[in-house]
Every structure is written in C-alpha cells, then in structure tokens.
C-alpha cells in the first residue's frame, strides 16, 4: 500500500507480524533509521517518520507544535493494517512518539502497543533551557555539541541554510511542549534508553518515564552521550528486536 508523505519504508517485508515506527530527533530525517530498517526488517515492518521541511519534504514548512505533529502522524497511521506495534523515538522523537501513543491508546485501548523512548527526560519533568531560536549560531553550536550531525555538514554554509528552517521549527516545537495530565491511564508499557554520559537525559531523568508506563517498564543505560545510539547500534537493535517479539 502507498505510505503517503509521512512514512518511509527502506526495507520491504513480506507479511510481518510486528510493526516498528521510528521518530527522528530534532533536525533529523527518516534516513537516520535506515540501518534500523536493514537490521530489523526480517522481524518487523519498519517505518521511519519523515517530518515536513527536510529531504523530499523540503518545500513544506516545518510544524512548530508537538501536538500537531502527533495528530498528523496518528492520522497517517489509521489506515495501516492492525498488527502489534512498537513506537521508537529518539530525543524530540521520543516526545512525538509518546503523544502518538496517547492518541492510539484513546482510540484503540486494547491494541498491542509498546513505546521505546531514547535520550529524552520524562515529559512531566519539564524542559531544559533551549538555545536561542533567534540566534542561528547558537542553535548550530548546540546541534554540534550534541554530536548527532556530521561536522562537515555544519561547516558548510549552504547546507546549513537548507537545514536551519527545519531545525528552528523542531526546536520551537520542543520548547513550547508542555506535558498535560489528561486523566487517562498510562498509554502502554515503555522501554527507556539513554547514554550513561548524556547531560540532556540522565539515567535518573529517563527512569522517570516509569510514571507514564504500564508494566513492564524497562530502563536500559548504554555507554555514550546524547547520540549514544550511533555507536551502540548493535545493542539498540538487540533491545528493539527483543521488545518487538514481546509486543503481542
């Protein structure tokens, strides 16, 4: 079936028993999860979310509201065949995935659903100070410090001009996001991942996702900083494979 603008399938599968939907970090694109699709396509139908404002959606304005992003992704998922589902988001993507999970739970309370959050403090803890959105140099310096973007890209002024609109939109969305208790039960079971040296999502802050989880809740701390998953690809894929086969 046609996936539309919101999803990319890098590795086709036959008749999968599970589906994994991956949500990129701020400034990130669906292609970040190409290795994940290669590794896990035999186990699941791996879809990566493509936010507006990047790659083949470059001409579209980025969305500056997490709720609007979650609404759009949720609406795009409605017509997908119903099979056990795992949502996996890193950094900003963890918040978008969580909000999509809340929408799915409200609409389909009995569906098989698991959430994997990575590199993001629990939503009720509030937000940290974000870089000044009116200062491109500060924003790019922040992205460089996170370590998830190649230095040669950030050193190229022309490429930076292409990625800055999406970065600004994403950071505006993250900065404006405020978690609101809605009286609903936790959306699903949660696996939370982080790097042991991540100053933006410490193990203590990530463990607090337990308050948003149905049992079982699992915390996995791996070596590395905010983009630990780039160096710990095999370990992350092992954890995802294990969770996929348990989402039933």
From TrEMBL:
What range(s) does the Thioesterase TesA-like domain occupy?
A: 21-240
Matching entries from Pfam families are given as: Thioesterase
Q: What Gene Ontology terms for biological process does this UniProt record contain?
A: lipid biosynthetic process
Which Gene Ontology molecular-function terms are recorded? hydrolase activity
SUPFAM superfamilies per the record?
A: alpha/beta-Hydrolases (SSF53474)
Give the transmembrane region(s): none
What UniProt keywords apply to this chain's record, in alphabetical order? Hydrolase
Q: Which domain of life is it from?
A: Bacteria
Q: Does the keyword Nucleotide-binding apply?
A: no
**Is Hydrolase included in the keywords of this UniProt record?**
yes
The entry sums up its family as follows: Belongs to the thioesterase family.
User: What PANTHER family does this protein's entry cite?
Assistant: S-ACYL FATTY ACID SYNTHASE THIOESTERASE, MEDIUM CHAIN, THIOESTERASE
Q: What is this protein called?
A: Thioesterase
